[in-house]
Write a structure and sequence with these properties.
globular; binds NADP nicotinamide-adenine-dinucleotide phosphate; Rossmann fold; 16% strand; 7 strands; 249 residues; alpha/beta
Length: 249
């Protein structure tokens, strides 16, 4: 990554988005912070600018306003004079599984935010990065996408689908020198997980942000963060179905 290149952080009000924005600024990247709560983003931008030498802009972004995505992305690219170098995508929703099972509108909204809006932005980003022949895309998926568990399979399915998109996009853009990193966090201490039962080995958003940027530097395909989730998920994937169906995971 060039020290002065511009990065767009989508979902920058999220716990991990904030941590990523701070680390990217510390590395010298000019930023656009995008999200729904522009007041909160403006406060974050001011704080980052005070602590670093970089310029930080704020843009409104609503994942469900699909028709606005093309103009939004084009304007972000334009802001950096066509030289947008990195895209980090952090927006997502995780309603309770039991609620999403009973309320299809809720399940559908999660699918649209976690999967469809990502496809919409990634399609636009792919064209930009393909032409630019440099840069990176890093997207927060989840270990929940590795295997459907009864406690979280609807959310997990949105992340599994997104991981499949990233896998194909990685091959497409590798030929143009662009890296596509699929970041799969375990449990992270953010608004998304606050007060939820059954959490263990909970990581800080900053530890995840550090792992994401290391993964980008090393052009890693998939980053499990913290690292031990790679081993945990390998075991969970390997559990035979006749055993898996007896577990209350
Ligand atoms: N926390 C975990 O344990 C964990 C584990 C694995 C993966 N993840 C994934 O990591 C990502 C970041 O999560 P987090 O834990 O940092 O969660 P968070 O703090 O709850 O942030 C969620 C973000 O998504 C944004 N968002 C939700 N709906 C949106 C919409 N319709 N349009 C635009 N933005 C929308 C929120 O914006 P507002 O501020 O406007 O609500 C917020 O910025 C998510 O994709 C999540 O699925 C989280």
């Amino acid at each position: 990554m060039s020290e002065t290149s511009g990065v767009l952080v989508v979902g920058a009000t999220s716990g991990m988005g904030r941590a990523l924005a701070r680390r990217l600024a510390a590395e010298g990247h000019a930023l656009i912070l995008a999200g729904r709560d522009t007041d909160s983003l403006s406060a974050l931008a001011t704080d980052i600018e005070v602590r670093s030498e970089v310029k930080v802009e704020v843009r409104a972004f609503e994942a469900l306003a699909f028709e606005s995505h093309a103009a939004f992305f084009a304007e972000c690219v334009e802001h950096f004079g066509g030289e947008l170098h990195g895209l980090v995508m952090c927006h997502g929703q995780m309603p309770e599984q039991a609620d999403a099972e009973r309320d299809f509108a809720l399940a559908r909204r999660m699918i649209e935010v976690n999967y469809i809006s990502h496809v919409s932005l990634l399609n636009l980003a792919a064209i930009h990065f393909e032409a630019r022949e440099a840069g990176f895309i890093a997207v927060l998926t989840s270990v929940a996408g590795d295997r459907g568990r009864q406690s979280n399979y609807l959310y997990g399915s949105t992340k599994a689908a997104l991981s499949a998109v990233l896998s194909g996009l990685r091959v497409r853009l590798a030929k143009r020198g662009v890296s596509v990193v699929d970041v799969r966090p375990g449990f992270v201490d953010t608004q998304l997980t606050w007060g939820r039962p059954g959490m263990f080995l909970v990581a800080s958003p900053d530890a995840v942000a550090r792992d994401v940027l290391r993964g980008v530097r090393r052009n890693r395909a998939v980053v499990y963060t913290p690292f031990f989730w790679a081993g945990i998920m390998a075991i969970i994937r390997a559990i035979p179905d006749f055993v898996f169906r007896r577990l209350s995971l």
